Amino acid sequence: MESSIPWDGSAAYGKMIKKKAILVSREWFPYVHKVLGLPDVPDTRYREGLLSKAALDVYQCIQHKEGIDTRELRSQAGMKAKEMKSTFDNALIELQGSLDIVISGVKERVNELGEINGWNSTSYETVEHWIASSRVKELSISREVAASILQVKLASVCSPEAFTYLQKQFHLK
After folding, report:
1. I need a surface site. Which of 89, 131, 137, 150 has the fewest CB within 10 A?
2. Which residues touch 90 (CB under 8 Å, ≥6 apart)?
């Protein structure tokens, strides 16, 4: 099956809202990031008790190797054991929900001979890396101003029902 997700940097993809995967265009992402992203870096949030140790470990592995695939990431984070799968999955959801990481693509699994073998694997990168590599302009405006602009943008393209739903998800009301 061919993927319809644009891995060329034209949109960010991840479980950014209530564990639901969404695509956000490069043009809209700075506003979404300003509204939903957390102001402190993961290390600071961990020290303040606002980020789990598992999420910090996973983040640091991704930061060390941008574009790392799920299999290698689990191994590098020390969560390869079956009983660590839930911890690992929750760490990924936590990091996507705080807009620290995005899904950067899918890698094919290959055997020692270079032949495609098995299921594809999702790969991840930090939001900072995605922003830089996708040439997204970061905003130097407040969260409140970004929220107002995002609200106007949403109102211009959404049905009234969708607009009401997204206002709630983006905490715009």
Report:
1. 137
2. 52, 54, 55
